[in-house]
Design goal:
This protein is an alpha/beta fold and about 350 residues long. It contains 12 helices and 12 strands. Strand 6 (about 180-185) and strand 7 form a beta hairpin.
């Protein structure tokens, strides 16, 4: 639809800007949803120290599109405490609670509200973290409230839901040493409350370190971008052009040919999944021929589809940029690589 509007000969500049802004907003929502789905679909069940607020926020982000059509959603996330949990499992608990709140609200309600709160409390010398999801929907009668954690019990219409959501949420929370509580008043709304023991220490930040600014008289970086998607290649070139010299290659073989001919980029940004030669194979070739360049490689991935690629992504850590890409993050990642001048430059 956006493409048809942009192709219209009657489109004025203001309308063009509006269409592009809508497309950008939609792409950002898709990126957020995909990132959340990637977190929720992780196979590993190992527990780790995770930020309680970041986990709650990821659930808010994932449900934002559905919730905004039914209610005004507000949040007050006060704690910086951590919990010992599996991020994906715990995030799914909050997703279920928010979506239950959405479904409890009338479709045409003018004053529909959902409030999400996170805070700390101390009881008997133990530090706890609490998250509450409150709605001003239909509420529940006492006899219904007593059964909401029973497996297969649901208040939704036939064919909607399995009745397992809150039961599984309760099992997950109790498995982490916590409690899942519910308060509800018929005709006034419901509060769902997750209470978990706080971990001993806050988690280390998992964010990518911010790039240091490159002064105008510094060595201007050269970046080799390798991707078989032409449009994405052009988009990355446009984003990087103000900051770097950019060379592009549509496949790994062309990239190797450029290196063999003398190109010595400061950073190689490559897609992982490409025909004929993958990004993993390109990394192996670069490590064998030009080992000094292997450590400068960054990788773009829409997901690891084999045990081998999953192991590779795990080993590369933050050097893997998840698709769909946010160009600001790509630029930040590129500029964050140490741009020390290499011994040779590209041939003219």
């Amino acid at each position: 639809e956006a493409q048809q509007q942009l192709a219209s000969p009657d489109l004025d500049p203001k309308a063009c800007t509006a269409v592009l802004a809508e497309a950008e907003d939609a792409a950002e929502r898709i990126a957020t949803i995909v990132d959340s789905l990637r977190q929720l679909s992780r196979a590993k069940e190992a527990q780790e120290t995770v930020s309680f607020v970041e986990t709650v926020r990821s659930a808010i982000d994932m449900t934002a599109h559905q919730a905004q059509h039914r209610a005004v959603v507000s949040h007050d996330l006060e704690t910086d405490a951590a919990v010992l949990a599996n991020h994906a499992r715990l995030a799914q608990v909050f997703v279920n609670l928010v979506m239950n709140a959405v479904h409890a609200l009338p479709e045409d309600g003018e004053d529909n509200r959902i409030e999400v709160r996170a805070f700390e409390r101390e009881r008997d010398g133990q530090r706890w973290v609490v998250a509450e999801v409150e709605d001003n929907g239909a509420g529940m009668a006492p006899e219904t409230l007593r059964r909401i954690f029973d497996p297969f019990f649901t208040t939704k219409p036939v064919g909607v839901g399995t009745g397992l959501g809150l039961s599984i949420c309760q099992d997950t929370v109790e498995g982490l040493g916590g409690r899942l509580e519910a308060e509800s008043t018929l005709g006034r709304g419901t509060v769902m409350r997750v209470i978990l023991p706080a971990a001993e220490a806050a988690p280390e930040s998992t964010e990518r370190p911010r790039a240091r600014p490159v002064a105008s008289n510094d060595h201007r970086m050269t970046v080799l971008v390798v991707d078989d998607e032409k449009l994405l290649l052009h988009a990355i070139r446009r984003a990087l052009k103000p900051h770097c010299e950019v060379q592009t290659a549509r496949d790994a073989q062309t990239a190797l040919k450029l290196l063999d001919e003398g190109l010595r980029p400061d950073v190689i940004l490559t897609d992982l999944m490409m025909p004929r030669m993958s990004g993993m194979q390109l990394h192996q070739e670069v490590a064998g021929r030009y080992p000094e360049l292997a450590s400068t490689m960054l990788f773009m991935s829409g997901g690891a589809f084999s045990p081998e690629s999953q192991r590779f992504c795990d080993s590369m850590g933050e050097r893997v940029l998840a698709k769909p890409l946010r160009m600001a993050e790509v630029v930040e990642a590129i500029l964050g690589v140490d741009p020390s001048p290499p011994p040779h430059r590209a041939r003219a």
